[in-house]
Amino acid sequence: MSLSTSHFIDMCAVSAREMRQLQEKILELEDIVFSILDSGEKPTSDDIKKLQDFDLIAQTLGGISGFFEQLNRQVEDEGEANLTQATASITLEKLRKRLTHTGVMIEPKASAGTFEAF
Question: CA distances (Å), 43 to each of 35, 36, 81, 96, 109, in order?
Fold first, then answer.
């Protein structure tokens, strides 16, 4: 089954939203780090909890990049990509669910090595 245009657009929108949220979180963390450095004191337990978001950001970035790498490999090797299989290695369940659209396929376009979402 081919991925419909609306599913493809949804997947791109979800991916873009995930990256924007990561960007916002990095900016928040940057402020926290500067506050800790400016205070000259040891980070509080609340500061440390907030800094743990770096781990979530790293996991999310790893999941998204692995997802797109897997899609690329599938299209190159098999001529189509399965979103369910591409998200299988994502360890963050909520991210995996946001990126998965019922396991439909993306078929490559006949030209230029790109894929068509029809």
Answer: 9, 6, 46, 33, 53
